[in-house]
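Let's sit down with a protein and look at its sequence and fold side by side. Which protein we use is up to you, so please pick one and set it down. Label the sequence line and the structure token line clearly, so we can match residues to local backbone shapes. Go ahead whenever you are ready, and we will take it from there:

***
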Amino acid sequence: MRKTVLFVALLIIPLGINAQWIQQNIPYTEDFLAVHFVDSNIGWICGNNGLILHTTNAGSDWFEQVSGTNSTLREIEFVSSQVGWACGAAGILLYTANGGNSWETQQSGVSTTLFSISALDSENCWVAGLNGKILKTTDGGNTWLSQSYFQENFQIMSLYFWNSTRGWLGAVIHDPPIGPIGLIYSTTNGGISWNQQFWGLGQPLTDIFFVDENNGWGAVNNSDILITSNGGNDWIPKSFSPNYGFSSYRVILRIPDSGWIINYGNSNDIRFTSDGGNTWSIQTQASVRFFDIYFVEQKYGWAVGENGLLVHTTNGGGVFPSTPTLVSPINNQLLKSDTVNLIWRSATPLITGYSVNISTDSLFTTYTDTLITDTSLTLINLELNTKYYWRVKALNEIGWGDYSDIGSFTITITGIGEDYDSKIEFVLSQNYPNPFNPVTRIKYTVPSRQLVSLKVFDVLGREVITLVNEEKPAGVYEVVFNVAQLSRAEMASGVYYYQLSSENFVQTKKMIYLK
């Protein structure tokens, strides 16, 4: 039997720039240790004393589900609104095929705590925990096979599989003479064997998350974030100050560089990054510790913690950009020039860029997408007797806003419509900021559709990175150069050069990187 638990919003916590997390009051004092949602409405919380709570309406109502255990539940994960697993102390492993209306105990064969679940679908799932235990099922949990590969002092805190063969784990070994050792391992054969990718003294791994097979993040319980862009072959540390501890990290797939992390140390906060973990801003703080955070998309997120702590956001913890207003050309305007300057009013707050879509199809089945920071874009060499459609959306540190209304204009034969004259040339602008650390932006203009290359070189003429190497239509572009993109761990301070080139154009400018 389930009992209905009604709650109301107790507190709106605004921090930073219009950040907003809402604390939700639920009459429970148990620690909430994990939270998982399958969409913006359907989710679960688990915690101490076998507690499982469920909502189907984004948290307006919560129902307690009968787990059948008093053991502490450390993790809960669903692959659909019906099928999911929970695990925890004493090797407890629960399964449901009906959204948690009933939970059944599956035989894990272990008696130590299971900390992590990684489920691909209703058949394939891994769980892991203390004593290096890894279990795998390929039949929905009817049978669990031991993939134990590690020694008994190996504590697996987080397990993440991208597909049936590729996976990673974060772990810690407690070695009394020298202290805790953090480790990251990867597998390419579904967990049959594992290869060490990272070893860090005093850096116990608490969470691993990947957005694809190359780009991943690891949270370390000593104020570090580890970042990889090559599947874990190299892990680049990003340090925080002061030296608190972080317990969980999630990255929203719609924007790979944007993510949230919870701090269960002295500050008990939720932090946000929009540049892949190079910089972080605090969105909200609590009086007790957070233990887990989860987002189903860039707007809808939940975080849970000590003594029944539950906070929720419907705007990513901040304010998404307003919708740009198209200014010129006016809708359905006739133009006799093949060059058009698109203008729109700026959005708010704190816009970092715009995406401009151009199409000859009002449904935008196919379109060109130009990313810029200005509120205007010049198009050249447009086709005569053709109607074009355009729309704009804005980006800030929280994410992308909604598209504007769709505008249109038609390029007519000479002598009909309004004249529009503007000469466009190749332009390579000075990077900004300059000097920079670790991110800078480079803006350039392309006068006609052609193959364009933009590369960075060191003072010896050695190529550092290729930022652009593709055919571009006419327009103004901006590319972001982030030192974290480099495969090597470090880039020395000093002078570097960036060069824009095409078939009939080459220009080079100097920039300075300061650590």
